[in-house]
# Entry
Amino acid sequence: MHCNRWLFWPQGTASSQEFRCGYAYTGVSRYSEFEKNRNEEQQGTATADIAYSIPTVIAARIHLPNLNLDAYQLSSVALHDLVPVPGTLPVSPPAGDEPPPPVLDLKATIDNVLYRGETAHGVDAHAVIRGNELKLKHVGVDELLGSHLEFSGSVADYGTVPRFELAYRAVIRDADRMLDYAALPRFVHGRIGAAQVAGRAMGTLKEAVLPELSVAMLGTSIKATGRLSFDADRRFDFSRFALVSSDIGALVATASGGPRRELAAVQANGAFHGDARRATFRGDLTVDGMALSGELSSTLAGHPHVTVALRAPAGLRLDRWLPPAPRLGAGGAGSSPPGSSISMGSEGLMASLRAFDATLALTAPEVRWGPFTLGTVDLAAKLHRGVLEVTRLAGTLEGAGLELAATIDARRAASMVEVRGSVRDIDISRTIAVAGGTNEFGTDQLAVALEGRLSLEDLVLRTEGNTLDEFVASVVGRGLSRSEVRASVTRGSASFASFATGLASLFSTEMGFSSAVIDGFVGNWIATSGGFDVAGGIIDFDEHTVRAPHATAYVKSRLDLRQRTVDTLIALDTATPGSIDYFMSVRGPLAAPTLRAEPVPRR
# Structure
């Protein structure tokens, strides 16, 4: 009988081996051996059973305390020489020309495997080799870089152009180190940390089909089905992609390389594709219970550019991402809580605007912010290097139509905001009700309520700060206003009040003015127009014209929203056009101003 075996040893090392073999007359040969490398780099034991059958079956069992694979690594030139040249792949001989190849059933346990400078502990493998097909019954690694790995499956043509079908599972302690160790691409700019991966893969060394991929990391669970390319572009195309996260903030921070902050619970279902330069998701999203659909795309550079085109069929709530909305109602209209600031911290939100570039398009039936609801929303915006340009914001607010554009400059410590556009058809009585005020003005003898519509056009407003109070206090701007208003009597008698004040006007200019106002304006539709300026919480109305059928008033007024005071001059013309019959002032606190006669200015 003849026995032989061959081994690879590291170049330049000495080795020796002891070899014993025997023959059993049952038709099965059994060989056992003990091998030892004299330089003490490798040692181990192996046994083998050979069944003389068709095909021949060799069952081998190997145990090695240590295996240094780095000593056998081929150079890139040598590896290139081993890869078959296209068109030169061996052709399988016709069936029947050769006996079937033997089957090698190999079980191996290796305590420590050194590969790429890292040691894998507790490697356990069971493989079956038949010709050019390798079946991996099980391969397990107890610990590599703190991670546990398992996979099984088959590799066809493993000696020429491998085609594999594998199932895998990994519990990874440090995904960042593992990606670097495996020389895999990283599509993120922050640290991932712990992760779990499982699934199946089939394909070649150029492209793989992933019918079942499951990933858990950063508080996020991902399941996907698709294809992955291993070329230089690292293309991927997942036709089914599902994501569930209790808070997407950690994943967003890792992808962008920014600080981690709590953002929102997110669910996603759709398609996900891209390459080493860009990734795109198309499908349905649920963000904090709010449903959206559309497309999100991002470049994968250090400073990514994100493109978002979404529809929100059930509307959105913005309280979590915007400053607290102003309190409405008595004593609180237009004010914000003391020290109110942007959610997540103003500097944090503005820093996020500096972390990436973006193009945004959003449509929704409504967007809610505190007590305010903006309906039929159409939004388009661009973000570049910390400057957000809202090129279009259209919608309706309490019945009024908005057509606005805005710029938010977050490059400085105090953010600058500029708003341009118009607000048309503001319902005056509805606005008073939303603000929590009472739409009734006057005395027990005569009280009126206002109705009509107000439009603000050619608006240009600028402000800066980091809290809502700072933004309100620093507003500077201008605009034009137009309105159609009517004061309807709700209590008392306009005729009696006019007679009484007219009688009293014999003794008081103020009473004469009141009588003229009642006669000329109460119960009639009044047209107003004029310009206004805003600065430091003060609104100046410059030469507003208030025109009724039988009277015209010219109003110049200043409202101090911080001190809640008014300073108004009114010129009233009730007779011949161009003549001023009364010149009055209204000054003092908004709640109780004082009316008095003023000298008529010379023209």
The two ends are 133 Å apart (CA to CA).
